[in-house]
Amino acid sequence: MSAILIDMNLSHPWALIRSPIDMEVLLVLRGTTRSLTGREVARLVRAGSQPAVNAALRRLAGEGVVRSEEAGNAYLYTLNREHLGAPAIELLAGIRTELERRLRTEIAGWEIAPAHISLFGSAARGDGDARSDIDVFVVRPARVAKDDPRWRAQLERLSDHVYVWTGNHAGLSEVSPADVRRLRRERPPVVEELLRDAVTLAGPAPTTLLGAAG
Prior knowledge:
The chain is α+β, with helices and mostly antiparallel strands. It contains 10 helices and 8 strands.
């Protein structure tokens, strides 16, 4: 096998990733040290056709951020982790994790601790877009009034920070412990969504809060 590695354009390094499919391809390659064929990459990306994946692989190999190796009639691809752009790719790939870390840090400093907070919806699944809200499920403590100014200030500050950090609005779904008991009993679709997708930020896991999936 012979490796093919071409230089990036140092005069326009920001053009390294030009489309969502480029990032999808890089995320797949980032997740393994094994060489993958274009067909394998196309099977693992969350979105993108085989021709689109192949075109992205060729372009990224041309930039040098992907290593391309001839193997008979096929090409094998790996992420070039020594590339100057690799740390930026790692940073972009870790944005969801960083959002969760910032949210946990802020919530841990609240004067009034929540009974539970979790991310759910597209933010938890990782399939949202620029128009998607960052959905947050909040359970208010039993002895805290809904209009308590300290409690409201915490939620407003959280909403503001989510928008500053992401450019997306926070969609806060705030409920009381009585509402939680009703949700457990009636089990509307949002309960199954929380049990399936939610990322707990504070308090008990959704399975403890709402009961195991039926």
